[in-house]
Amino acid sequence: MTHGRRRTAVRLDNLSLRDQLRVDRLPLRLLQMMVGLTGFGFSLALLLESGLGGAPWDVLHAALADSLGLTVGTLSISVSFVLLLAWIPLRERIGIGTVANSLWVGVSIDLGMLVLPAAGGIPAAVAMMLGGVVLNGVSGAVYLGAQLGAGPRDGLMTGLGRVLDRPVGPVRIALEVLVLATGTLLGGPLGLGTVLYALGLGPIIQLTLPYVTLPVRGRGGGAPAVSTQQVPDLG
C-alpha cells in the first residue's frame, strides 16, 4: 500500500516565449526562477572557492578567465551567449529563463566569489564542496520547476540530441567530456569536486524537482496544449 502523495513523475512543459508571458502564476514563477538561479551561481562559487575543483563548465570558464584576466562570471556570461548562437540552427526556443540564466548565473558566481573566503583547510574545503554540490542540485531543480525555459547549455544538449537523433544522456556526457578536457588542458581547476558534481547533480535534481515544480495550468485548471521536454541537468 502506498501512503501519502507520490512524487515521482514530473512534467516539464516546453512553452514558447508567448505562452510563458501568459502562463499562470507568472510573478511566482519569476521569483522562483531568480531564487534558483541565484543559488545556482552561488553554489558554483562555493565549489571554486573550496579549491577542490569546479563544475565541468566552470573548469573551462576559470581557465579562460585566468588567461584573459577576467572574472569567472564574465566568462560564464560570454560563453552562454556564444552557445545561444548555436541555438539558431538547432531551432531551440529561447525563453525568459534562458536569458535570465545566461546573465544572472554569471553575476551570482562573481558575487559569491566576492563574499566567500577561500577554504582555510581540508575540513572547510570538503564542507564547501559538499554544500556546493547539494545547493547546486536543489537550486537547479528550483529554477527548472519554474518552467520558464532551459539554460543555454541545456538547450544545446537537447537541441543536438534532437538533430542527431540521439538520447540526451549520451549527448550531455559527450559535451561535458569535451568541455572538461578543454578546460583541463588550459589549466582549469579539475578536482574531486568536479567528479562529485558530475555524479551527484542529476540525482539531486531528480529527487528535488517533484517538490518544486509549478505545473502549467490553463483556464479552468486544464493544461494548455504544449509539448513536454525531458528534464535536463544544469551545468
UniProtKB/TrEMBL annotation:
<feature type="transmembrane region" description="Helical">
    <location>
        <begin position="68"/>
        <end position="90"/>
    </location>
</feature>
<feature type="transmembrane region" description="Helical">
    <location>
        <begin position="167"/>
        <end position="188"/>
    </location>
</feature>
<keyword id="KW-0472">Membrane</keyword>
<keyword id="KW-0812">Transmembrane</keyword>
<dbReference type="InterPro" id="IPR038750">
    <property type="entry name" value="YczE/YyaS-like"/>
</dbReference>
<dbReference type="Pfam" id="PF19700">
    <property type="entry name" value="DUF6198"/>
</dbReference>
<feature type="transmembrane region" description="Helical">
    <location>
        <begin position="125"/>
        <end position="146"/>
    </location>
</feature>
<feature type="transmembrane region" description="Helical">
    <location>
        <begin position="102"/>
        <end position="119"/>
    </location>
</feature>
<keyword id="KW-1133">Transmembrane helix</keyword>
<protein>
    <recommendedName>
        <fullName>Membrane protein YczE</fullName>
    </recommendedName>
</protein>
<feature type="transmembrane region" description="Helical">
    <location>
        <begin position="28"/>
        <end position="48"/>
    </location>
</feature>
